[in-house]
Structure formats: structure tokens, C-alpha cells
């Protein structure tokens, strides 16, 4: 038979001769003494919150607003992660399930294309080693593209007489 025991502490934890009894129905009883230490996976994120701020409503041909989220394995063992987020028309994140060796990192592009004039907020949920959830908050604002004069009296300017190619 197989007995699987998982130890997934959310903070540094030490087990020292922790007594456990494993009883098999209509069978034997086993006494176990467990020792060990554990901690949350040490997966570092370059940010846990990012605000794109005001951005023009996206139109075809426009360059999208983009940032890079860097995920680094700061642990001594391999760490896996999976992003639990589905892309939307306004937020695209390219983060397939990944296993990082110690010291290895992955650059994750985060692309924001606002579709209308409003505030946007989303949470990217990363499941680490199938147990721990790490949240990264993304925000931004869609704004209409509009050009106005700071001073309305500058609506008409007289440049005088100019020659072709002359700079003022």
C-alpha cells in the first residue's frame, strides 16, 4: 500500500519527532515519528502590484501598453507555477505552466489594451507547487484620445512671413 503525507506550511515550520499513527482498516497500526522543516516556496516576483495608469483606448495599429513581470526561483529546489487567469480582450498575459530550477527566472509579458474609458483591475493568481497561491494585482485606466489647447487664447497664432524650410 501507499501512504502519502503532505507537509505544506504557509510560514517557516519545523517538525521534531512529531508522532503520527496510521491505522489500516482490518489491518495493522503503524506509529510514525516525523521530523523535518518546511517553508513556502521561495518564488520571487518583480512586483505584486502594477498600475498602467491612464492609457488611450486601444485601436488597431496602436502599440499596446506592456510591462514585464519577472518570476525568479529563489529556492534550493525546483519550483513550479501555473497562472490561473484567462486572457481578456483588454489584458493578455503569456505565462504557460512552468518549472524553474534554482536561480532560474522567467520573463512574463503583461499587455494592457483598454477597450473603453473606465478603470480596470484584475488579479493574476499564480498557483505555486500546486499548493500556494500568490496574487499579482494589475490596474489601468482607459482614456479617450483627445488633444486640447492648455490655453484657449492660443487657438490662432500668427507666424508672420516665413520662407519654405524656415524654422520658427
TrEMBL record:
Q: Where is the HYDIN/VesB/CFA65-like Ig-like domain?
A: 41-136
- Report the GO terms under cellular component: axoneme
Q: Which InterPro entries match?
A: Hydin-like, HYDIN_VesB_CFA65-like_Ig, Ig-like_fold
Q: Which domain of life is it from?
A: Eukaryota
- Which compartment or compartments is the protein found in? Cell projection, Cilium; Cytoplasm
Q: Using the UniProt record, give the first listed, main subcellular location.
A: other
Keywords (alphabetical) are: Cell projection, Cilium, Cytoplasm
Q: Which PANTHER family does this entry report, sorted A to Z? A: DLEC1 DELETED IN LUNG AND ESOPHAGEAL CANCER 1, HYDROCEPHALUS-INDUCING PROTEIN HOMOLOG
Entry protein name: HYDIN/VesB/CFA65-like Ig-like domain-containing protein
Source organism (scientific name): Polyblepharides amylifera
Q: Source organism lineage?
A: Eukaryota, Viridiplantae, Chlorophyta, Pyramimonadophyceae, Pyramimonadales
Amino acid at each position: 500500500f501507499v501512504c502519502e503525507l503532505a507537509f505544506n506550511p504557509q510560514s517557516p515550520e519545523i517538525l521534531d519527532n512529531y508522532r503520527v499513527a496510521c491505522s489500516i482498516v482490518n489491518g495493522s497500526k503503524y506509529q510514525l515519528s516525523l521530523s523535518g522543516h518546511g517553508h513556502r516556496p521561495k518564488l520571487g516576483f518583480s512586483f505584486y502590484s502594477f498600475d498602467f495608469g491612464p492609457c488611450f483606448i486601444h485601436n488597431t495599429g496602436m502599440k499596446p501598453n506592456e510591462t514585464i513581470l519577472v518570476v525568479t526561483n529563489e529556492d534550493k529546489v525546483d519550483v513550479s507555477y501555473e497562472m490561473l487567469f484567462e486572457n481578456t480582450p483588454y489584458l493578455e498575459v503569456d505565462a504557460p505552466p512552468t518549472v524553474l530550477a534554482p536561480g532560474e527566472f522567467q520573463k512574463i509579458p503583461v499587455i494592457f489594451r483598454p477597450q473603453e474609458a473606465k478603470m480596470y483591475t484584475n488579479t493574476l493568481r499564480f498557483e505555486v507547487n500546486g499548493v500556494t497561491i500568490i496574487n499579482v494585482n494589475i490596474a489601468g485606466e482607459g482614456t479617450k484620445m483627445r488633444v486640447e489647447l492648455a490655453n484657449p487664447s492660443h487657438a490662432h497664432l500668427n507666424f508672420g512671413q516665413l520662407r519654405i524650410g524656415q524654422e520658427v
